UniProtKB/TrEMBL annotation:
Annotated keywords: Cytoplasm, Hydrolase, Nuclease, Ribosome biogenesis
UniProt-listed Gene3D superfamilies: YqgF/RNase H-like domain (3.30.420.140)
Full protein name: Putative pre-16S rRNA nuclease
Predominant localisation class: cytoplasm
Length: 128
């Protein structure tokens, strides 16, 4: 199954991709948060994405209501453009973890990779 993870930000959208048959999580670039629709829909079709996972900014102690609303609005817009399952996954501390992760990709891509890795681990636990 091809899964796309999204770290939605006010400026950039970080992307990561995984084919669960291979198991490797890879960075997939970033998009401008104001001009994402055409590129993201094209990517979903070209890469035969079957599921989208979006990082949900729950915040420490449940704070961050404005960010949660922004992500929910983004997800609703995306859902109107693609007919795929969209799931949310807790992105708490993904940016801080991305800052500590070495590599030649953007912070947004690293955050998306961390979100996707967490999602895969959590779902593997559920199935065991």
């Amino acid at each position: 199954m091809n899964i796309l993870a999204i770290d939605f930000g006010t400026k950039n959208i970080g992307l990561a991709w995984c084919d669960t048959g291979i198991g490797a999580v890879l960075p997939y670039g970033q998009l401008d948060a104001k001009k994402w629709k055409i590129e993201l829909v094209k990517l979903v079709k070209e890469e035969r994405i079957e599921r989208v996972v979006i990082g949900m900014p729950t915040g420490v102690g449940g704070s961050g209501e404005k960010n949660i609303e922004r992500v929910q609005n983004f997800a609703a817009e995306l859902k109107a453009l693609i007919d795929l399952p969209i799931e949310f996954f807790d992105e708490r501390f993904s940016s801080q973890q991305a800052d500590r992760t070495p590599g030649g990709v953007s912070r947004d891509e690293k955050s998306a990779m961390i979100i996707l890795e967490g999602y895969l681990v959590a779902n593997k636990r559920k199935s065991n």
